[in-house]
């Protein structure tokens, strides 16, 4: 179906941070499949895990115990400070599970019409519930009626949350991204997550964090919420946890962790042996190679490089980032830069119309990081001068 405005390139193979198209042209990947391939392309250990597990067992269904799923649940909950996990196949499915947990948790507390607070400019997926939770009218248009039970507030504004607490009955949860990715690499002020945590504690709401894009070491911690020293009640992850193999997870703790009972939720493919084996391999490598620390060092290097290279250019209104989640905001729409960078052998993305979004693999070298800075800065300078 005609659902993608695809760029005029088809990739044939990849290695590390590099891709080659079917004509043999080489590209430096500064997008990682949208924060997915944190270990780069064709990682040998990931390829070995896929091949070995495919020869052993791919699928049995969740009607039976899946030991690799149990191992992955233990690994993720330990890393995140959570108690239990539900596995699906995507970030949207993970968020659907979180929304269902919040609603069921509310019903069990006697709230017949539970409400979830969500954020402006958020992105949580394209199913009907996650589309409603998403704060982008453009992607919602034409899919009405949207799902009831959501109220929206400005991102980063705890006073707005307090107003909701005073004026909106039946709130059961707050769902937000620690850093808004699709919304333009929006990083809230440092106290924000702590304030949301305190507010949720005070009003007995679930704090639900969508770390589908910001998780798996991308920001310099295994999960972005760890920078704030707090722990959510529900956490959703996907994208980078299996380096390109489809899997998503909804993690929970406390009462939220025991809300689902048999029959409340399920998935045919979610948590299958192959996906869990690849995710376990990916998480092992991320930890063994200390990629959170590497993301911090690379992010600081690239931010400094951009600040120097783009200094004094009026078209550049902001350069921001945390770890290898970087954004360069311009003063006007700049979607054309994606094609211009592609012509120069560089994969980038523009989101929120005027923010260049960079999500390079966590395994890039210093030299590759510098090449990304040089290449992006060059197309920005040309664009600003036009």
Describe the structure in your own words.
The chain has 386 residues and is α/β, with parallel strands linked by helices. The chain folds into two domains: 11-30 and 290-385, Aspartate Aminotransferase, domain 1; 45-288, Type I PLP-dependent aspartate aminotransferase-like (Major domain) (Aspartate Aminotransferase, domain 2), CATH 3.40.640.10. The protein has twelve helices and 15 strands. It has a seven-stranded mixed beta sheet, with helices on both faces. β7 (171-176), α8 (192-203) and β8 form a beta-alpha-beta unit. The longest helix is centred in the last third of the chain and has 20 residues, at 366-385. It is globular, with a radius of gyration of 21 Å. It starts with 10 loop residues before the first strand and ends with a helix.
What's the short story on this structure?
The chain is of the alpha/beta class and 386 residues long. It contains twelve helices and 15 strands.
Topology:
Layout: E1 11-15, E2 18-21, E3 26-29, H1 32-35, H2 44-56, H3 67-80, E4 84-88, H4 91-108, E5 115-119, H5 128-133, H6 137-140, E6 150-153, H7 158-167, E7 171-176, H8 192-203, E8 206-210, E9 234-237, E10 248-252, H9 273-288, H10 291-309, E11 316-322, E12 325-330, H11 337-343, E13 346-347, E14 349-351, E15 355-358, H12 366-385
Parallel strand pairs: 3-13, 5-6, 5-7, 7-8, 8-9
Antiparallel strand pairs: 1-2, 2-3, 4-10, 9-10, 11-12, 12-15, 14-15
Helix pairs in contact: 2-9, 3-9, 7-8, 10-12
């Amino acid at each position: 179906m005609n659902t993608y405005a695809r760029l005029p390139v088809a990739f044939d193979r990849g290695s590390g941070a590099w891709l080659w198209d079917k004509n043999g042209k080489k590209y430096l990947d500064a997008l990682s499949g949208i924060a997915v391939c944190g270990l780069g392309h064709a990682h040998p250990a990931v390829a070995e895990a896929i091949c070995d597990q495919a020869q052993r067992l791919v699928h049995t269904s969740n009607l039976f115990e899946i030991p690799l799923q149990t191992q992955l649940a233990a690994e993720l909950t330990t890393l995140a400070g959570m108690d239990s996990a539900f596995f699906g196949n995507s970030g949207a499915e993970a968020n659907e599970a979180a929304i269902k947990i919040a609603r069921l948790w509310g019903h069990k507390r006697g709230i017949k019409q539970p409400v979830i607070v969500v954020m402006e400019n958020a992105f949580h997926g394209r199913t009907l519930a996650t589309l409603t939770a998403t704060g982008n009218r453009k992607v919602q248009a034409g899919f009405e009626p949207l799902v009831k039970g959501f109220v929206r507030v400005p991102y980063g504004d705890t006073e707005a949350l307090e107003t909701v607490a005073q004026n909106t009955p039946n709130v059961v949860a707050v769902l937000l991204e620690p850093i808004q990715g699709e919304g333009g690499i929006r990083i809230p002020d440092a106290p924000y997550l702590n304030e949301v945590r305190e507010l949720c504690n005070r009003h007995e709401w679930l704090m639900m964090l969508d770390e589908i894009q910001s998780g798996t070491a991308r920001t310099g911690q295994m999960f972005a919420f760890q920078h704030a020293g707090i722990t959510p009640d529900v956490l959703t992850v996907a994208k980078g946890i299996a380096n390109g193999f489809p899997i998503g997870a909804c993690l929970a703790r406390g009462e939220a962790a025991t809300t689902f009972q048999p029959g409340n939720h399920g998935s045919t493919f979610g948590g299958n042996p192959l996906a869990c084996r690849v995710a376990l391999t990916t998480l092992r490598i991320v930890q063994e190679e200390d990629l959170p620390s590497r993301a911090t060092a690379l992010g600081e290097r690239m931010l400094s490089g951009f600040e120097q290279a783009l200094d004094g250019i009026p078209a550049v209104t902001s350069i921001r980032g945390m770890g290898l989640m970087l954004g360069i905001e311009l003063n006007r729409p700049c979607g054309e830069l994606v094609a211009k960078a592609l012509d120069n052998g560089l994969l980038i993305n523009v989101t929120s119309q005027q923010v260049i979004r960079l999500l390079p693999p966590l395994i890039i070298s210093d030299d590759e990081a510098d090449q990304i800075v040089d290449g992006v800065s060059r197309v920005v300078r040309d664009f600003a001068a036009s």
